[in-house]
Amino acid sequence: MKPNPTILHAAVDVMSTTARDVRPDFDASIASVNHTGLSQAVWARRGQQTTDKFPENDNIKIRHVQRGGFWQFEAVVDVQQREVFLLMTHDNLKALQKKI
User: Fold this and answer.
1) Phi, psi of 2 (to 5 degrees)
2) How far apart are CA 77 and CA 68, in angstroms?
């Protein structure tokens, strides 16, 4: 089974978003002297970008999975091939696997 290249390209593009990309908006709207929450803002931006890449698509669904009060991760579901792509760090994936 070959992973959906559309999803893989979108994931690579979204995951290339870093704090450097988000910082100008964060500084303007939150604080320029305190960067508490910047990491969460990066993941929030990635979640929005992922959602924006697949609007109204019957074959690809985006699921925003809540993981507590402060963070979530995005799951991209290829409905036709019945595959799920998780956008999260390796450490968070390992922790989630251990918990399950």
Assistant:
1) -100, 130
2) 21
Whole-prediction pTM value? 0.83
Phi, psi dihedral angles at 76 (to 5 degrees) = -105, 120
- For 48-73, what is each residue's pLDDT tens digit? 999 999 988 889 999 988 877 667 88
Token pair in block for residue 63: 């699921």
Mention every residue, 6+ apart, whose C-beta is less than 8 A from residue 44. none
Closest to 17 in 3D by CA, of 86, 77, 87: 87
Q: Give dist(CA 57, CA 55) in Å, integer.
A: 6
CB of 97 closer than 8 Å to CB of 90 = no
